[in-house]
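Hi L.,

You mentioned the student needs an example of a multi-chain input paired with its predicted structure. This one should do, with 772 residues in total across all chains.
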Amino acid sequence: MKRDKPKYKQIIDAAVIAIAENGYHQAQVSKIAKQAGIADGTIYLYFKNKEDILISVFEEKMGVFIENLQEIIKNGESSTEKLSRMIENHFTVLANDRHLATVTQLELRQSSKQLRLKINSVLKEYLKLLDEILIEGMVSGEFNPNMDVRIARQMVFGTIDETITTWVMNEYRYDLIATAPKVTQLLLNGIKN
Amino acid sequence: MKRDKPKYKQIIDAAVIAIAENGYHQAQVSKIAKQAGIADGTIYLYFKNKEDILISVFEEKMGVFIENLQEIIKNGESSTEKLSRMIENHFTVLANDRHLATVTQLELRQSSKQLRLKINSVLKEYLKLLDEILIEGMVSGEFNPNMDVRIARQMVFGTIDETITTWVMNEYRYDLIATAPKVTQLLLNGIKN
Amino acid sequence: MKRDKPKYKQIIDAAVIAIAENGYHQAQVSKIAKQAGIADGTIYLYFKNKEDILISVFEEKMGVFIENLQEIIKNGESSTEKLSRMIENHFTVLANDRHLATVTQLELRQSSKQLRLKINSVLKEYLKLLDEILIEGMVSGEFNPNMDVRIARQMVFGTIDETITTWVMNEYRYDLIATAPKVTQLLLNGIKN
Amino acid sequence: MKRDKPKYKQIIDAAVIAIAENGYHQAQVSKIAKQAGIADGTIYLYFKNKEDILISVFEEKMGVFIENLQEIIKNGESSTEKLSRMIENHFTVLANDRHLATVTQLELRQSSKQLRLKINSVLKEYLKLLDEILIEGMVSGEFNPNMDVRIARQMVFGTIDETITTWVMNEYRYDLIATAPKVTQLLLNGIKN
DNA sequence: AATGAATGAGCATTCATTCAT
DNA sequence: AATGAATGAATGCTCATTCAT
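Structure written out for the whole complex:
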């Protein structure tokens, strides 16, 4: 399996750094290769093309969010707590990796519509877990059982996304993690029963 | 004033169509000119360069949102009503111009970080008006006076944005305007006193 | 006759200034028109095309040199004196019109080979007069009767040209006219009997 | 070192031919690449941009003149002989490479003022060596010790340049090398003691 | 497995000239 | 005679990908 080879992750990490430091359009394959300490051609032994690198970046990194969220769902007591811990986790991971935050919130969005559609399908798995939490809460009576799940999900994710993007655009000037409880509170107000 | 000349708006509209139909990176100046029914060179009598066209597209179209919102703020009775009508207006304008919706929600985001920073400064004016509504509501007691305005704003705008983007990505399959009341309800729940 | 109309000379002079101030490649027709205080299109009532302006600039200005030289030939006593006064005149005219000097020595040389061939044919009339002086001197015994006239002419003109070009490239830093006697002396040494 | 790689010289030579055959403004990068038998992009592995090719053409080719002249200075017996051999060499090199002669005497002069300034700084080295010969001759008493070196240099170089340019403009119709002794004789007359 | 030199398609912009007014 | 808005052809350069070594 290619993704178990050491150079695979090496290239992924190099791509995140190259994109964060140079911007999406200035992160040429040659720069990623240089950052990874390998030759340009070697990239193509591990990735089909440049787009494949970028999708893989998203898959690999999103994987962390998904694994964490599965853990949270498994261990959480209530839906409210799960949602709360999901937001906290999302903020924490990105606050602790500003390169990654820049890449996911700003740079990767400059990619072609086609690439973003693929990224979206990766994202869907994460949103499905979010839907699980919401539905569970509606069933248990913690959340408003009459609300439209899709819209609730869009509110939760849209708010998280906008909050982090603003933080990145403001050049990380304030403590992102500290805002998590307030964000959580507003969102819970919106959907609670 | 150049923006009062008929060809100015003609080019803006041609750009929206060309970008919506071909995608951001495939909307060459020659395509925009052809769509506008003029020669390539004529573009440059009205715009400094291609980026200038794109910024102007955003300014012109965002201008509609801002003017509408100012009207809403002037005429609305309560903050609740103003927020409700803002969301309704935002959804209605884009639901009625799918080309524009595609351009603002998907295509223009692929532009360079520099262009997006300029777009953001145009956006700021809109967000300032949103802040006005929120603060007024907090003062009047309609909205929770203890909430963090910035986070509330990010929730409102993030939710609107995510909702419309999802709609566009789903290829306008459902009635966007019909979802406005539900979106409004969830958001109001979140911020009401 | 078009060249008797006031706008004809007005455009010629505007062209010299526009070229001197902006450089050959940055002296667009629109700049020349603006400098002349007329509309772009008006240029084409007096000149066939841009090349025609530039040739005319050269013709008109070279005309001064030719008239002066004819006068010098008519009034001069000896060939030596005539050559001396020719060099003096050439230096004086250009030292007194730095715009013109820049245009003839630097800017006009960037024109296409084709244009420079035409310029050369204008120049020929001037060089013919120079040949007259040289041949007369050879016949009279002032100059070496065995020398090759063409080479002597190339030496005289090449030296004049190089001297002025160097002066222009050195940004007129020294007194060009003051060098005329030394230049004349060297050249006369070379060709005298 | 890039200039030791075979493709470097290959491109330089292709540029000389492409410019000589098509003219400066019609010598597009694609034509130079085609002439060199390589892809357009390959040019940019060896040169920063098109201007860099042209400067390099001049440097490389002027280098031959400079090296030859250094050799001549080293081996020549008298200043008179050195000057004589310098002129002979200058004529011979260009008479034997008409492409190069066309490029240096006609085409390269159409380049932008900026490029010509760079070309001039290359030329300066050659002129410095000429100055060396002149000064040496003035010290040894072969040349007039009272003459102005700058003007003498301008006469020598201006004459050489004008002679060759005229020959090129006359489409190489006569034997350039055969005129060298006459040119030399006239110049020596001008500067000898 | 790894290299890195070579490839070649693709596009924003300028400006001399025209011509309807 | 004069205007000036409109035209449209023409080109240097980048960079993802390949493939001989």
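You could point out the following to them. Chain B is about 80% helix and 0% strand. Chain B has one domain: 52-191.

Best wishes,
N.
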